[in-house]
Every structure is written in C-alpha cells, then in structure tokens.
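Sat 14:20. Reprocessing the chain from the morning session after the first attempt stalled halfway. Input below, unchanged.
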Amino acid sequence: MSYSNVRKYLFSSSSFLLVFGLLFILAGGYINIHTEKPILKLSKQETALNINNDILVFMSAGNKRLLTDLLWVQTLLETDHEHYKKKDLNNWLFIRFNSILKLDPNFYENYLFGGQFLSIIKDDPNAAINLLEKGIKIFPNDYKLNFLLGFNYFFELQDMNKGFFYIDKIKEYPEAPSFLPSIARKLQFALTQDYDVTISLIEEQLKMNTDETMRKKLLNEYLALTTERDLKCLNEGKRKKCNTKNIFDEAYFFDGQSYKSPRKYSPYKIKMRAP
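Finished this time. Tokens:
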C-alpha cells in the first residue's frame, strides 16, 4: 500500500475516529495509573440510606419481624462513632432506630441498645431521650430504660427534676442496687460535681452494658471520676480516709508539691447542655 493510500485510509472519517478513540483510551489509562487521585471522604451521616417509614411498612408485606431483623443487623454493621452535635433529631442512626420501632414497637433491644449508643457513642442525648421515652411507653416499668432516662436527664441535660423522677421511680425495684434509694434522695439536692453520686451511676451502667466500645468510654469516665475524687481527698490532707490507689491498683504518688496520678486520664467534665 502506497503512502498516499495509507494516509488516505488513516484520515478517513471512520478510521480517524477509531484511531482517535484508541489513543484517547490509552491516554486515559496512562493518566489513571500515573495521576494521584483526590481522596473523597464522606461521613456516615452524609451517606446513610434511610427509607420512609410508611414505605417500609408497605414493603414488609406482613413480614414486619423479618424486615425488622434484617434492618437491625444492617444497622449494627453500619454504626459509626462520629458525634452528632445538632439537636434536630436528624441523626441517621436515630432515624434508623425509629424505622425499626415503626416496624416492631415491641423490639426491646432497639430501645435499650439504641438509647445507650445514641447517648454514649454518638453524643446525642436529645435523640437518646426521645427514643427511650418511646420505649418507656411500651415498657413503662422496665428498670434499665427508666435508669437510662434518669441518667440522661440528670447528667446530660442537667434536668434535675426529670432525672430524679425516673431514678426515684425505680429505687425499690428488685433489680435496683442497694445504693439507689440513697442516690434518689441525693439527686434532689446534689450538684453535678458530686463525685459519689456520679461514680455510683456509672458503675451501674457498666454492670448493665456488654458492648465493648461503650464499656471502654464508660471505663475512661469511671477512671477520671475516681482519680479526681481520690486526688482531691489526698491533696486536702485526708490521707487516712482516701483511696491511695486507682481502679487499676496503681498507687498515687507525691511529687513534692501535690499528689499525682500514675496514669494519664482525661478530666471528667459534665457539660451543661440545653434540652
């Protein structure tokens, strides 16, 4: 084939498009391999998929329990640890727990686990209380749901009256620890800086909680509270009445000026929140 024929063939409309397409694909592949791509980071809040509750009920076609179980398992697999700071009840996890209760309002674990996760991990006490109050309507005399509601109202929202109401309600329950009646009395007058009251309530949450992530967070708070209480006692010169070791059996030490903790901890601060 002569040069003119080759040139004519290559630059014919169809052949030109074919060659151009091949070169474009090769160039695209080269750029894709050798060019650093930007990393796209989206939070779970931005990517979570929640279906309208009415549509979910319609989709269940009478198999609400099956769809509830599937949605529950999916939720457990998708849960994230990112705090939700808005107070608009638009937390994707809260919406998901609401969908589950719409399908099966008698699903107890949805209230118990959901309430704790929203409060402790997502740092969204408004959503936690909303969910727990719905649970109380179904299980009005449940010890754990009442305890969690009282805890959240008192320590998270600083609502002393409502916190006292729920703790006082369950103080004589068979499941209640022996110290709860005393705490119920103190809650009427106690300040949030009362170490003994706070420590006792966190101890009770540790007993009822099996989730490792939540237990780790509660244990950190427990360490901080007990350490602050013990160091305050030691530095006030009440050594005979004070604990000289932390919860890990590590001794506090005197650095020449004051007693210090052998283990680092984040100071426990009860944040003032608006309902």
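The mean pLDDT is 77.
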